[in-house]
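Preliminary data (for renewal application), nicotinamide-adenine-dinucleotide complex.
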Amino acid sequence: MGGLKGKEVLVTGGLGFIGSNLSIELVKAGAKVTIVDNMLPRQGGNLFNIKDIEDQVKVNFSDVRNQLSMNHLVKGKDFIFHLAGQVNHVDSMRNPIQDLDINCRGTLVLLEALRQYNRSAKVIFAGTRGEYGATVKLPVDEDHPTNPKGIYAVTNLTAEKMVLVYDDIYGIKGACLRITNTYGPRHQMAHDEYGVFNWFIRKAIDDDVIPVFGDGRILRDFLYVDDLVECMLMMTENEDVYGKVFNVGTGRPVSFIEIARKIVEIAGTGRVEFTEFTRERKEVEPGDYYADITRIRNTLGWEPKTSLEEGIRKTVDYYRRYKKEYW
Ligand SMILES: NC(=O)c1ccc[n+]([C@@H]2O[C@H](COP(=O)([O-])OP(=O)(O)OC[C@H]3O[C@@H](n4cnc5c(N)ncnc54)[C@H](O)[C@@H]3O)[C@@H](O)[C@H]2O)c1
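Predicted structure:
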Protein backbone atom coordinates (compact mmCIF):
# COMPACT_ATOMS: atom_id res chain seq x y z
CA MET A 1 0.00 0.00 0.00
CA GLY A 2 2.52 2.61 -1.17
CA GLY A 3 -0.12 5.32 -1.08
CA LEU A 4 -0.37 5.26 2.70
CA LYS A 5 3.26 6.18 3.35
CA GLY A 6 3.37 9.36 5.43
CA LYS A 7 -0.43 9.71 5.49
CA GLU A 8 -2.10 10.88 8.69
CA VAL A 9 -4.70 8.34 9.75
CA LEU A 10 -7.15 8.42 12.67
CA VAL A 11 -8.55 5.08 13.83
CA THR A 12 -11.52 5.42 16.18
CA GLY A 13 -11.88 2.31 18.34
CA GLY A 14 -8.27 1.47 17.50
CA LEU A 15 -7.61 -0.48 20.71
CA GLY A 16 -10.35 -2.95 19.81
CA PHE A 17 -10.28 -6.08 17.67
CA ILE A 18 -10.52 -4.75 14.12
CA GLY A 19 -9.03 -1.34 14.93
CA SER A 20 -5.83 -2.77 16.39
CA ASN A 21 -5.29 -5.27 13.57
CA LEU A 22 -5.85 -2.39 11.14
CA SER A 23 -3.50 -0.04 13.01
CA ILE A 24 -0.70 -2.63 12.91
CA GLU A 25 -0.98 -2.89 9.12
CA LEU A 26 -1.28 0.89 8.72
CA VAL A 27 1.98 1.31 10.62
CA LYS A 28 3.63 -1.32 8.39
CA ALA A 29 2.41 0.64 5.35
CA GLY A 30 4.16 3.75 6.68
CA ALA A 31 1.08 5.68 7.83
CA LYS A 32 1.17 8.01 10.86
CA VAL A 33 -1.50 6.51 13.06
CA THR A 34 -3.51 8.15 15.84
CA ILE A 35 -5.90 5.99 17.82
CA VAL A 36 -8.86 7.32 19.78
CA ASP A 37 -10.54 4.89 22.15
CA ASN A 38 -12.43 5.24 25.44
CA MET A 39 -11.84 1.61 26.57
CA LEU A 40 -15.57 1.09 26.99
CA PRO A 41 -16.10 -1.66 29.59
CA ARG A 42 -17.10 -5.13 28.29
CA GLN A 43 -15.91 -4.32 24.78
CA GLY A 44 -12.73 -5.23 22.96
CA GLY A 45 -10.41 -2.36 23.93
CA ASN A 46 -7.12 -3.88 25.14
CA LEU A 47 -3.73 -2.16 25.23
CA PHE A 48 -2.00 -5.48 24.66
CA ASN A 49 -3.55 -5.45 21.17
CA ILE A 50 -1.13 -2.72 20.11
CA LYS A 51 1.90 -3.93 22.10
CA ASP A 52 3.98 -4.40 18.94
CA ILE A 53 3.35 -0.86 17.70
CA GLU A 54 2.95 1.06 20.96
CA ASP A 55 5.97 3.27 20.24
CA GLN A 56 4.81 3.99 16.71
CA VAL A 57 1.24 5.22 17.28
CA LYS A 58 -0.35 8.05 19.24
CA VAL A 59 -3.12 6.91 21.56
CA ASN A 60 -5.75 9.36 22.73
CA PHE A 61 -7.97 8.03 25.51
CA SER A 62 -11.06 9.93 24.61
CA ASP A 63 -14.64 9.42 23.53
CA VAL A 64 -15.93 9.91 20.01
CA ARG A 65 -18.88 11.73 21.61
CA ASN A 66 -16.54 14.42 22.93
CA GLN A 67 -16.81 17.24 20.40
CA LEU A 68 -13.73 19.14 21.61
CA SER A 69 -11.54 16.02 21.38
CA MET A 70 -12.84 15.11 17.96
CA ASN A 71 -12.43 18.67 16.65
CA HIS A 72 -8.78 18.48 17.64
CA LEU A 73 -8.18 14.91 16.45
CA VAL A 74 -9.55 15.25 12.90
CA LYS A 75 -7.27 18.17 12.04
CA GLY A 76 -4.68 17.29 9.40
CA LYS A 77 -5.90 13.72 8.94
CA ASP A 78 -6.03 12.18 5.47
CA PHE A 79 -8.14 9.16 6.41
CA ILE A 80 -10.49 8.36 9.26
CA PHE A 81 -11.40 4.73 9.95
CA HIS A 82 -14.47 4.92 12.13
CA LEU A 83 -14.63 1.73 14.19
CA ALA A 84 -15.52 3.01 17.66
CA GLY A 85 -18.89 1.67 18.55
CA GLN A 86 -21.11 -0.11 20.98
CA VAL A 87 -20.81 -3.59 19.46
CA ASN A 88 -22.63 -5.82 21.92
CA HIS A 89 -25.97 -6.98 20.45
CA VAL A 90 -27.33 -8.10 23.80
CA ASP A 91 -26.29 -4.85 25.54
CA SER A 92 -27.92 -2.88 22.73
CA MET A 93 -31.27 -4.26 23.91
CA ARG A 94 -30.50 -3.98 27.63
CA ASN A 95 -29.17 -0.45 27.33
CA PRO A 96 -30.45 0.95 24.03
CA ILE A 97 -29.87 4.58 24.96
CA GLN A 98 -26.15 3.98 25.36
CA ASP A 99 -26.06 2.19 22.01
CA LEU A 100 -27.87 5.08 20.33
CA ASP A 101 -25.61 7.60 22.00
CA ILE A 102 -22.33 5.97 21.00
CA ASN A 103 -23.20 4.67 17.57
CA CYS A 104 -25.32 7.58 16.32
CA ARG A 105 -24.32 10.64 18.32
CA GLY A 106 -20.67 9.53 18.29
CA THR A 107 -20.74 9.27 14.50
CA LEU A 108 -22.45 12.64 14.17
CA VAL A 109 -19.92 14.32 16.48
CA LEU A 110 -17.11 12.94 14.30
CA LEU A 111 -18.83 14.14 11.11
CA GLU A 112 -19.45 17.58 12.60
CA ALA A 113 -15.78 17.84 13.55
CA LEU A 114 -14.92 17.03 9.94
CA ARG A 115 -17.46 19.52 8.57
CA GLN A 116 -15.94 22.30 10.64
CA TYR A 117 -12.26 21.44 10.63
CA ASN A 118 -11.31 19.05 7.83
CA ARG A 119 -13.59 18.49 4.88
CA SER A 120 -10.87 16.88 2.81
CA ALA A 121 -10.44 13.81 5.06
CA LYS A 122 -11.89 10.56 3.75
CA VAL A 123 -14.01 8.43 6.05
CA ILE A 124 -14.30 4.65 6.02
CA PHE A 125 -17.12 3.48 8.25
CA ALA A 126 -17.34 -0.05 9.67
CA GLY A 127 -21.02 -1.00 9.58
CA THR A 128 -22.49 -4.45 9.89
CA ARG A 129 -24.26 -7.14 7.90
CA GLY A 130 -26.79 -6.92 10.74
CA GLU A 131 -28.24 -3.90 8.93
CA TYR A 132 -30.01 -6.34 6.59
CA GLY A 133 -31.75 -8.19 9.43
CA ALA A 134 -33.68 -11.33 8.48
CA THR A 135 -32.81 -12.13 4.88
CA VAL A 136 -35.36 -12.60 2.12
CA LYS A 137 -32.82 -13.66 -0.50
CA LEU A 138 -29.39 -15.32 -0.40
CA PRO A 139 -26.64 -14.42 -1.03
CA VAL A 140 -27.32 -10.89 0.18
CA ASP A 141 -26.29 -8.04 -2.11
CA GLU A 142 -26.28 -4.36 -1.20
CA ASP A 143 -29.77 -3.81 -2.66
CA HIS A 144 -31.31 -6.32 -0.27
CA PRO A 145 -33.93 -4.69 2.03
CA THR A 146 -32.67 -3.48 5.40
CA ASN A 147 -34.83 -4.75 8.25
CA PRO A 148 -32.52 -4.52 11.26
CA LYS A 149 -33.19 -6.89 14.12
CA GLY A 150 -32.06 -5.28 17.34
CA ILE A 151 -31.01 -1.75 18.24
CA TYR A 152 -27.32 -2.31 17.41
CA ALA A 153 -28.26 -2.97 13.80
CA VAL A 154 -30.61 0.04 13.69
CA THR A 155 -27.96 2.41 15.02
CA ASN A 156 -25.36 1.06 12.58
CA LEU A 157 -27.71 1.60 9.67
CA THR A 158 -28.44 5.13 10.90
CA ALA A 159 -24.74 5.91 11.33
CA GLU A 160 -24.10 4.62 7.81
CA LYS A 161 -26.78 6.96 6.45
CA MET A 162 -25.20 9.88 8.32
CA VAL A 163 -21.83 9.20 6.67
CA LEU A 164 -23.54 9.11 3.27
CA VAL A 165 -25.48 12.35 3.96
CA TYR A 166 -22.24 14.20 4.86
CA ASP A 167 -20.67 12.82 1.69
CA ASP A 168 -23.61 13.99 -0.40
CA ILE A 169 -24.25 17.40 1.18
CA TYR A 170 -20.84 18.53 2.41
CA GLY A 171 -18.59 16.57 0.06
CA ILE A 172 -16.84 14.81 2.96
CA LYS A 173 -15.93 11.61 1.19
CA GLY A 174 -17.35 8.60 3.00
CA ALA A 175 -17.41 4.88 2.18
CA CYS A 176 -19.48 2.42 4.18
CA LEU A 177 -18.79 -1.24 4.80
CA ARG A 178 -21.35 -3.80 5.88
CA ILE A 179 -19.03 -6.29 7.48
CA THR A 180 -19.90 -9.90 8.11
CA ASN A 181 -18.97 -11.80 11.30
CA THR A 182 -15.24 -11.42 11.66
CA TYR A 183 -12.88 -13.54 13.74
CA GLY A 184 -9.17 -13.78 14.51
CA PRO A 185 -6.47 -12.54 16.90
CA ARG A 186 -7.07 -9.57 19.27
CA HIS A 187 -10.79 -10.08 19.79
CA GLN A 188 -12.15 -9.90 23.33
CA MET A 189 -12.59 -13.36 24.91
CA ALA A 190 -14.05 -12.39 28.27
CA HIS A 191 -17.70 -13.17 27.48
CA ASP A 192 -19.89 -14.62 24.74
CA GLU A 193 -22.12 -11.64 24.03
CA TYR A 194 -20.49 -10.80 20.73
CA GLY A 195 -17.99 -12.59 18.55
CA VAL A 196 -19.38 -16.12 18.75
CA PHE A 197 -16.61 -17.60 16.59
CA ASN A 198 -13.92 -16.39 18.98
CA TRP A 199 -16.00 -17.62 21.92
CA PHE A 200 -16.03 -21.12 20.40
CA ILE A 201 -12.25 -20.92 20.11
CA ARG A 202 -11.90 -19.97 23.77
CA LYS A 203 -14.06 -22.93 24.78
CA ALA A 204 -11.96 -25.29 22.67
CA ILE A 205 -8.69 -23.96 24.10
CA ASP A 206 -10.11 -24.41 27.62
CA ASP A 207 -11.02 -28.01 26.65
CA ASP A 208 -14.58 -27.10 27.52
CA VAL A 209 -18.01 -27.56 25.93
CA ILE A 210 -18.74 -25.44 22.84
CA PRO A 211 -22.42 -24.62 23.15
CA VAL A 212 -24.16 -24.57 19.74
CA PHE A 213 -27.64 -23.05 19.81
CA GLY A 214 -30.62 -24.92 18.34
CA ASP A 215 -29.70 -27.48 15.67
CA GLY A 216 -26.60 -25.48 14.66
CA ARG A 217 -27.70 -25.28 11.04
CA ILE A 218 -27.96 -21.48 10.78
CA LEU A 219 -25.60 -20.28 8.07
CA ARG A 220 -23.09 -17.46 8.44
CA ASP A 221 -20.29 -15.95 6.50
CA PHE A 222 -17.14 -15.79 8.65
CA LEU A 223 -14.29 -13.54 7.57
CA TYR A 224 -10.73 -13.69 8.89
CA VAL A 225 -9.62 -10.32 10.22
CA ASP A 226 -6.48 -10.03 8.04
CA ASP A 227 -8.67 -10.22 4.94
CA LEU A 228 -10.92 -7.46 6.27
CA VAL A 229 -7.90 -5.29 7.07
CA GLU A 230 -6.51 -5.80 3.59
CA CYS A 231 -9.84 -4.72 2.15
CA MET A 232 -9.86 -1.59 4.34
CA LEU A 233 -6.36 -0.64 3.22
CA MET A 234 -7.28 -1.15 -0.43
CA MET A 235 -10.21 1.24 0.07
CA THR A 236 -7.72 4.07 0.65
CA GLU A 237 -6.27 3.63 -2.83
CA ASN A 238 -9.51 3.80 -4.77
CA GLU A 239 -11.55 6.93 -5.43
CA ASP A 240 -14.62 4.97 -6.62
CA VAL A 241 -15.58 3.79 -3.15
CA TYR A 242 -17.01 7.05 -1.80
CA GLY A 243 -20.73 7.69 -1.39
CA LYS A 244 -21.29 3.93 -1.57
CA VAL A 245 -22.05 0.91 0.57
CA PHE A 246 -20.12 -2.38 0.25
CA ASN A 247 -20.60 -5.84 1.66
CA VAL A 248 -17.43 -7.39 3.01
CA GLY A 249 -17.49 -11.12 3.57
CA THR A 250 -16.34 -14.34 1.97
CA GLY A 251 -19.57 -15.25 0.18
CA ARG A 252 -19.06 -18.80 1.47
CA PRO A 253 -21.79 -20.02 3.84
CA VAL A 254 -20.91 -22.25 6.75
CA SER A 255 -23.11 -23.51 9.58
CA PHE A 256 -22.41 -23.03 13.29
CA ILE A 257 -22.14 -26.75 13.80
CA GLU A 258 -19.55 -27.08 11.03
CA ILE A 259 -17.54 -24.24 12.57
CA ALA A 260 -17.66 -25.75 16.05
CA ARG A 261 -16.56 -29.19 14.77
CA LYS A 262 -13.74 -27.71 12.72
CA ILE A 263 -12.45 -25.73 15.70
CA VAL A 264 -12.40 -28.87 17.86
CA GLU A 265 -10.62 -30.79 15.11
CA ILE A 266 -7.96 -28.13 14.62
CA ALA A 267 -7.48 -27.24 18.30
CA GLY A 268 -7.47 -30.91 19.28
CA THR A 269 -9.39 -30.00 22.45
CA GLY A 270 -13.00 -29.12 23.43
CA ARG A 271 -16.27 -30.81 22.48
CA VAL A 272 -19.53 -29.72 20.91
CA GLU A 273 -22.94 -29.82 22.55
CA PHE A 274 -26.29 -28.53 21.39
CA THR A 275 -28.16 -26.17 23.67
CA GLU A 276 -31.39 -24.14 23.58
CA PHE A 277 -31.21 -20.53 22.42
CA THR A 278 -31.37 -18.08 25.31
CA ARG A 279 -34.33 -15.72 25.01
CA GLU A 280 -31.99 -12.71 24.57
CA ARG A 281 -30.16 -14.46 21.73
CA LYS A 282 -33.28 -15.66 19.99
CA GLU A 283 -34.72 -12.15 19.95
CA VAL A 284 -31.85 -10.71 17.90
CA GLU A 285 -31.04 -13.79 15.76
CA PRO A 286 -31.69 -12.88 12.11
CA GLY A 287 -31.18 -16.39 10.65
CA ASP A 288 -29.08 -17.37 7.62
CA TYR A 289 -26.71 -14.85 6.10
CA TYR A 290 -23.97 -14.89 3.52
CA ALA A 291 -22.79 -12.02 1.43
CA ASP A 292 -22.72 -11.35 -2.26
CA ILE A 293 -19.33 -9.63 -2.58
CA THR A 294 -19.51 -8.86 -6.30
CA ARG A 295 -19.53 -5.08 -5.77
CA ILE A 296 -16.39 -4.89 -3.65
CA ARG A 297 -14.61 -7.49 -5.77
CA ASN A 298 -15.33 -5.53 -8.95
CA THR A 299 -14.48 -2.15 -7.41
CA LEU A 300 -11.27 -3.05 -5.58
CA GLY A 301 -10.21 -6.36 -7.05
CA TRP A 302 -10.23 -7.61 -3.42
CA GLU A 303 -10.75 -11.29 -2.57
CA PRO A 304 -10.63 -12.91 0.86
CA LYS A 305 -7.59 -15.19 0.87
CA THR A 306 -7.64 -17.04 4.18
CA SER A 307 -9.29 -20.46 4.29
CA LEU A 308 -11.39 -21.34 7.30
CA GLU A 309 -8.83 -23.94 8.39
CA GLU A 310 -5.93 -21.49 8.17
CA GLY A 311 -7.90 -18.77 9.98
CA ILE A 312 -8.83 -21.11 12.81
CA ARG A 313 -5.27 -22.38 13.13
CA LYS A 314 -3.80 -18.86 13.32
CA THR A 315 -6.42 -17.77 15.84
CA VAL A 316 -5.94 -20.81 18.09
CA ASP A 317 -2.16 -20.33 17.97
CA TYR A 318 -2.46 -16.65 18.92
CA TYR A 319 -4.66 -17.26 21.95
CA ARG A 320 -2.65 -20.24 23.15
CA ARG A 321 0.36 -17.89 23.26
CA TYR A 322 -1.34 -14.85 24.74
CA LYS A 323 -4.21 -16.37 26.70
CA LYS A 324 -3.43 -14.45 29.88
CA GLU A 325 -4.00 -11.11 28.11
CA TYR A 326 -7.55 -12.03 27.06
CA TRP A 327 -9.12 -14.50 29.50
N1 LIG B 1 -16.22 -7.83 14.78
C1 LIG B 1 -17.16 -8.03 13.88
O1 LIG B 1 -17.49 -9.17 13.54
C2 LIG B 1 -17.85 -6.83 13.25
C3 LIG B 1 -18.77 -7.09 12.23
C4 LIG B 1 -19.43 -6.01 11.65
C5 LIG B 1 -19.14 -4.71 12.06
N2 LIG B 1 -18.25 -4.49 13.06
C6 LIG B 1 -18.02 -3.09 13.48
O2 LIG B 1 -16.64 -2.82 13.51
C7 LIG B 1 -16.35 -1.90 14.56
C8 LIG B 1 -15.24 -2.47 15.44
O3 LIG B 1 -15.69 -3.69 16.02
P1 LIG B 1 -14.73 -4.65 16.85
O4 LIG B 1 -15.19 -6.03 16.59
O5 LIG B 1 -13.32 -4.28 16.61
O6 LIG B 1 -15.17 -4.28 18.34
P2 LIG B 1 -14.29 -4.00 19.64
O7 LIG B 1 -15.20 -3.94 20.80
O8 LIG B 1 -13.15 -4.93 19.71
O9 LIG B 1 -13.74 -2.54 19.32
C9 LIG B 1 -14.51 -1.38 19.47
C10 LIG B 1 -13.64 -0.35 20.17
O10 LIG B 1 -14.37 0.88 20.23
C11 LIG B 1 -14.11 1.47 21.48
N3 LIG B 1 -15.21 2.39 21.77
C12 LIG B 1 -16.50 2.07 22.06
N4 LIG B 1 -17.20 3.19 22.29
C13 LIG B 1 -16.35 4.24 22.13
C14 LIG B 1 -16.49 5.64 22.23
N5 LIG B 1 -17.66 6.18 22.56
N6 LIG B 1 -15.42 6.43 22.00
C15 LIG B 1 -14.21 5.88 21.69
N7 LIG B 1 -14.03 4.54 21.58
C16 LIG B 1 -15.08 3.72 21.80
C17 LIG B 1 -14.02 0.30 22.46
O11 LIG B 1 -13.33 0.65 23.64
C18 LIG B 1 -13.28 -0.73 21.61
O12 LIG B 1 -11.89 -0.66 21.79
C19 LIG B 1 -17.65 -1.67 15.32
O13 LIG B 1 -18.22 -0.46 14.90
C20 LIG B 1 -18.52 -2.84 14.89
O14 LIG B 1 -19.89 -2.50 14.91
C21 LIG B 1 -17.60 -5.54 13.67
